[in-house]
């Protein structure tokens, strides 16, 4: 019997959430932007379009290939939590959109804040029913964006 891997169903960020996110971020030109759980890469691609230097992190090999076709930034195939441990830069912004059934949110938050540059911003997209001790939370339909600012 052939062993098959379960692939997470993509849940791209809605246009409403994406537009709200970039309105909140404002000018991100020349900032280092890390797109964790990149999926289709749409958030990172928008950040690139706005002048950020983007690093994409995605585990799925076929999605990595698709992102590489579109992106100018570096694309890393790997587990987001492991990549955070071995980054050679301190991003100004980390955006993470893990699957809604993700179970290691607290570890993701901890590692992301540790990896950020001083004054950097960590943004987590998640189901609005999931609550975190964030600096700010914005809700759009069933989706929430939670924000943490790393102290200077």
UniProtKB/TrEMBL annotation:
Q: Methyltransferase: present as a keyword of the record? A: yes
Q: Which UniProt keywords apply?
A: Methyltransferase, Transferase
Annotated InterPro entries: DNA_methylase_N6_adenine_CS, RNA_MeTrfase_RsmD, SAM-dependent_MTases_sf
Give one GO molecular function term.
methyltransferase activity
Q: Which GO terms describe its biological process?
A: rRNA methylation
Q: Does the keyword Methyltransferase apply?
A: yes
- Specify the protein name: 16S rRNA (Guanine(966)-N(2))-methyltransferase RsmD
**Where does the source fall among the domains of life?**
Bacteria
Coiled-coil boundaries: none
């Amino acid at each position: 019997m052939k062993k098959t891997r379960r692939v997470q169903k993509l849940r791209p960020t809605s246009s409403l959430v994406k537009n709200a996110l970039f309105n909140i971020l404002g000018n991100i030109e020349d900032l280092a932007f890390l797109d964790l759980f990149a999926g289709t890469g749409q958030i990172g691609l928008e950040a690139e379009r706005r002048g950020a230097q983007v690093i994409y992190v995605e585990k799925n090999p076929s999605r990595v290939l698709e992102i590489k076709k579109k992106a100018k930034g570096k694309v890393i195939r790997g587990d987001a939590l492991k990549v955070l441990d071995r980054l050679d830069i301190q991003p100004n912004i980390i955006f993470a959109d893990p699957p809604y059934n993700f179970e290691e949110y607290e570890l993701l938050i901890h590692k992301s804040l540790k990896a950020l540059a001083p004054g950097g911003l960590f943004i987590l997209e998640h189901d609005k029913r999931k609550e975190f001790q964030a600096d700010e939370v914005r809700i759009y339909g069933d989706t929430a964006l939670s924000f943490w600012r790393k102290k200077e």
